[in-house]
Design goal:
The chain has about 600 residues and is an alpha/beta fold. Helix content is about 30%, strand content about 20%. α3 runs antiparallel to α16. The longest helix is centred in the middle third of the chain and has 20 residues.
Length: about 600
């Protein structure tokens, strides 16, 4: 999810800031920069970066010609499979990544507990079929944290299908007393557009230019519509499954959503389900929930609209593995060697968890294996960085950035949660904090964090997250990488993944610009998210580029410059309408 804003005077700001940075002198003493009255990231930056082009060459050779990224990809996606937060598979992945990082020579490889998550869950088997008026096999899966059929015992259930559409609380009344023993086809049908655009794309030069030149794009009308609908569904989210349970429905079948460019045909997206925080025992959904391919769901819908009786048979076999499972991040390091800088840290990572319909290969197995390959490349080259390089593979990202937020709170600081009743009605990602940040000493030691979480596409550049002071630095780092397609710097804020947890506590956090490929159209949270969708050449390039960024950040004299500390608690105040703007307005209101 990306929250984007408009552009005022952006080129003037960027140009002025670049001139200021280029005219600055290099910091004379890195130790003084780290411990003096002026924070290290506010020390003067050099006009010219000290680039080790020999190391560029060595990293390129190691990453492009001697890669192991696809071996990591197969071991993770094929050998372990989907990695839902709290599941046994994610525990396997945590242990496997820790052990692989140790085997490549990293130190302090460990699992850090970010706190209690909720229920552990596995899908063992799900099938759905229509038995009348015709026989048909459905492409369907259980949604995460669905109980098994037959009150959790498993085994097939059979019953008449009924269509139910609840968009408002008043809609409950029309279904009371009518759903017992039924299999509910829940929701609105959707159009299945003719795919008139390719599912698999790369950025054109024009699209990259737009990203570079428009750092404040307005949120699209579609996104605003989505947010309004999301809040409305959020208000009903817990009431619908409880109503269907009370009415003694046998199971619920939902239609799979669409993908970008009409890509949601013939596949399943499993990121829906019923209820809010269905992974918590106190919010657990009590009847089986299934998501079906739109073509299967649509056939039944049309038959029911034509008043043709339909009978459905379904079997959901799932397993709960605990009510109080904890979440863990995998952490490992290449220790710094400079006596004056080794306590400072450069971080790289991606999220290890996934949804369940596929094997989590592109979301975000790709980011995980690229981060692992970055560490492997640097260890294979026997790099001795000045700063410590730390890899972090997060979990709980799909449910709300839990792993990276937990890490940031434990190590760097946090803001108090809101107590405003109106704010508490909103989804957590839309709430303002209840006060300013309180920082911990370790926050001052992180130079920057580099994240990859937009699928399998190669890196085309980087988002600055409005950190304009870092632009001239990255421009110089990227100049020797243009032949690899790395050309674009965008000042945009880009959202939806773990770099936001660093940005929220005032640490430079960056997400790379990646070619879209078929990520948003086909693989993101779908049963198409498998090893076959990984592109070897792109992942080799991504690991090479990210390794160079990490190496440069670890070796330069200065920490990366930072933005001012965020004050999200003041956002409402800053965006409030100006008072007394119109002459006479108050007097008119009083009359």
């Amino acid at each position: 999810m990306r929250l984007l804003t408009r552009r005022p005077l952006c080129m003037l700001l960027i140009s002025s800031l670049s001139v200021f940075t280029i005219c600055s002198y290099a910091a004379e003493n890195p130790k003084a920069a780290a411990s003096g009255d002026t924070p290290a990231w506010e020390q003067p930056q050099p006009a010219v970066e000290k680039l080790d082009l020999n190391m560029y060459m060595r990293i390129r050779e190691g990453g492009l010609q001697h890669s192991h990224v696809m071996e990591y990809g197969s071991a993770l996606a094929d050998g372990i499979g989907p990695r839902l937060t709290g599941s046994p598979n994610l525990a396997k992945a945590n242990a496997w990544t820790r052990d692989q990082l140790t085997a490549m020579g990293c130190v302090n490889a460990r699992l850090e507990d970010w706190g209690e998550f909720g229920m552990g869950w596995q899908q063992l088997n799900t099938w759905v079929r229509m038995t009348s008026p015709d026989t048909a096999i459905f492409n369907a899966q259980a949604t995460p944290w669905s109980p098994a059929t037959n009150n959790g015992a498993g085994g097939p259930v059979s019953g008449p299908a009924v269509w139910v559409n609840i968009q408002d609380e008043k809609d409950f009344d029309q279904y009371k007393g009518k759903l017992a023993g039924k299999i509910v086809f829940l929701g609105e049908t959707r159009e299945v557009p003719v795919p008139d655009k390719p599912f698999f794309t790369r950025y054109t030069d024009k699209e990259l230019e737009d990203r570079a030149n428009d750092p404040y794009p307005s949120p699209s009308a579609d996104y605003q519509t989505f947010l309004k609908a999301y809040v409305k569904r959020y208000e009903l989210a817990d009431k619908i499954p409880q109503f269907l349970t009370d009415e003694k429905a046998l199971a619920v079948i939902q239609p799979s959503r669409d993908g970008q460019n009409g890509g949601g045909t013939g596949i399943i997206f499993d990121d829906g389900g019923l209820g809010r925080q269905a992974y918590l025992r106190e919010r657990a959904v009590k009847l089986p929930v299934i998501v079906a391919q739109i073509e299967s769901w649509g056939r039944v819908y049309r038959l029911l609209q034509a008043h043709v009786p339909v009978t459905i048979e379904a079997d959901v076999e799932t397993k709960f593995t605990g009510d109080h499972e904890h979440g863990f991040d995998t952490i490992a390091e290449i220790p710094g060697t400079d006596p004056e800088l080794k306590e400072q840290v450069v971080m790289v990572g991606g999220h290890l968890d996934s949804w369940i319909a596929g094997t989590g290969a592109t979301d975000n197995g790709a980011g995980t294996i690229v981060a692992m390959e970055v560490m492997r490349i640097l260890k294979a080259l026997d790099v001795h960085p000045r700063r410590t390089i730390r890899v972090a593979l997060w979990t709980g990202e799909e449910e709300g950035l839990f792993g990276s937020q937990g890490y940031a709170k434990s190590h760097f600081g946090s803001a108090p949660e809101t107590t405003d009743p109106e704010q508490l009605k909103l989804p957590s990602f839309m709430r303002a904090p209840g006060g300013p940040l309180t920082l911990k000493p370790e926050q001052k030691l992180i130079s920057g964090y580099f994240n990859l979480d937009n699928g399998t596409g190669k890196i085309r550049g980087i988002y600055l997250q409005q950190n304009l002071a870092v632009r001239p630095i990255f421009e110089q780092w990227m100049a020797p990488l243009k032949d690899l397609g790395v050309t674009t710097i965008s000042a945009r804020n880009t959202g939806g993944t773990d770099h936001l947890s660093f940005d929220a506590v005032g640490i430079p956090g960056f997400q790379f610009i990646q070619d879209p490929m078929d990520y948003s159209s086909r693989t993101h949270h779908s049963n198409m998210d498998t090893y076959e969708r990984l592109q070897a050449a792109d992942l080799k390039q991504a690991a090479t580029v990210e390794a160079i960024f990490v190496y440069n950040a670890a070796m330069r004299d200065q920490m990366l410059p930072r933005k001012p500390l965020p004050h999200r608690e003041l956002e409402k105040q800053k965006t409030a309408p100006l008072p007394n703007l119109f002459p006479g307005a108050e007097a008119a209101a009083a009359n």
